[in-house]
Design a protein that fits this description.
With 349 residues, the protein is α+β, with helices and mostly antiparallel strands. It contains 7 helices and 17 strands. Strands 12, 13, 14 and 15 form a 4-stranded antiparallel β-sheet that branches.
Length: 349
Amino acid sequence: MVGIDARNKHLLNSKYICPVCSLILRDPVQLTQCRHRQCQTCTNVEQQTTIKCRQCQAETLQTEVLLDQSFTNEMKSLPIDCSFCQWNGVLCNYQEHLNQSHSNLKCDYCGKHFDSAENFHQHKVFECQQLIVDCILKDFGCNERIIRAKMEDHYLTEQHQNVLLKVARQMLSQLNDRQMDVDLPRTTTAGTCNPAIAQLEELDEMLNILVSGIEALTNDEQRLTHEALHMQITLSTLAAELSKVKDIFWFNFLVNAQSERLTSIYSPPFYSSPNGYKMRACLYLNGNGNARCIHMSLFFVLMRDLNDPILKFPFNYKVTFCLYGQIPQQRHIIDSFRPGIKSNSFQSP
């Protein structure tokens, strides 16, 4: 369960907004180390020994996370505008309104139905994969809005990588400035290393690794882009060469047909249905019979097969030829004929 949504939540004092779910605090707890508050359900104290504050990163032992009853009482009189209708009132009456008027809700993004406003808000804040959300680096300049399901793809984009690199460099610069300001005595005696300095050095090392990793990813992206461009040019060249080869093949075949060295070619056999007629097409590039040296001739050929005893002969089904144009205008040539039942070509093979 997450916090409480309301149409006017952005108008409320930020102290009433949970930094985890960005909704109005529900059963607020206080982190004693920094005094910041979160929703009790957003804190997950059962799963961790320490709780890290989303606002300042301070860590508080789970035993020191306190339910803030006085703050809860203070919030009861907060003005609320319902997020689903025109109802307005105070926070202490809002839950009753939601239970009575909004117990059957549907997500506009994925179509899923919910039996309570609490489950609906939980779904929107953490679960709905079709919801359009801001990048986690929005405050640092990555203003892209992304469908949650495609967030990992967004992390790999050039825009996000550049912002991430900028953030890492800023943090590294701030860390270096902080190290210069730290004026603590150091000693080389084993076991006496100052914890604050050790922590800074560890963070410095991690940030250096992060910056190096991002720069390596950027270099890889540039290299892959260059290779992809080179491959595209290569494929275009190969396609052009293949087209020339095909033209040469058909030209040679036409020459062979005209010289009658090879007058016809046959298609691979095919069937009218899984248990139907076996057939193939025969093409005479230089024509056949009355069409010789004038037109191409295309024949429909029945073939002998094990299915013949269960099929009807003579074959008298309508046959349609389609010659598909390969130019953008798609000037296809389509013609049909019905076999002559007295022709030997359509008797049982």
